[in-house]
Amino acid sequence: xxxxxxxxxxxxxxxxxxxxxxxxxxxxxxxxxxxxxxxxxxxxxxxxxxxxxxxxxxxxxxxxxxxxxxxxxxxxxxxxxxxxxxxxxxxxxxxxxxxxxxxxxxxxxxxxxxxxxxxxxxxxxxxxxxxxxxxxxxxxxxxxxxxxxxxxxxxxxxxxxxxxxxxxxxxxxxxxxxxxxxxxxxxxxxxxxxxxxxxxxxxxxxxxxxxxxxxxxxxxxxxxxxxxxxxxxxxxxxxxxxxx
Length: 244
Prior knowledge:
The protein is built from 3 helices and 15 strands. It is of the alpha+beta class. The protein has 2 domains: 2-108, Rieske [2Fe-2S] iron-sulphur domain (Rieske Iron-sulfur Protein, 3-layer Sandwich), CATH 2.102.10; 126-241, Alpha-Beta Complex (Naphthalene 1,2-dioxygenase Alpha Subunit, Chain A, domain 1). It has a 5-stranded antiparallel beta sheet, with helices on one face. It has a 4-stranded antiparallel beta sheet with strand order 4-3-2-5, with no helix packed on it. The longest helix is centred in the C-terminal third of the chain and has 22 residues, at 197-218.
């Protein structure tokens, strides 16, 4: 699954906590410059180790009982009253998830192996990320991204289920849909090759359109069809029915 832009954690010690489809994770760059994706769940009592605000740090310390971890998720220390029962190396580390950095973007997997390929290279320098909170279901947000797009259009590509890429001259916009709750979705607009300010209006337009579409779905109005929407709905039906 897509997690963030590589540039959002550009320097050693940078971290970015996110919730993706109910999985609370934190992306971080360790002191050696490697990107890590860790489960944001303390090994003591599964409480969040990192809050909701991104930043830069030397280590992570759970605010509930003081268990401390390094930037690679390795257990460092705990107060004596709550020290781990098993002190063996690695027994109390944060869960590290498979991660791949491709074309300026960070992907992770909740399974044992990180599979799948993101074939498009933006080919432009990272300019920043716009984060938009939208009062809609994630599927409605994806529908909005697909509306009006042709299936073979060279300036637009969709990657099941949560990412779309559009090109406009030198600017490449990678749009990442992050489900939070049934009626709350976060849209990350990663801008490559252009200024962040020029894309903020488009993000505001997307928010308004998605929330309007959500109201239409609640009123029983079906999505307007095109080839990409048909592919999306077919993939949804197969995913929910358990077929391959």
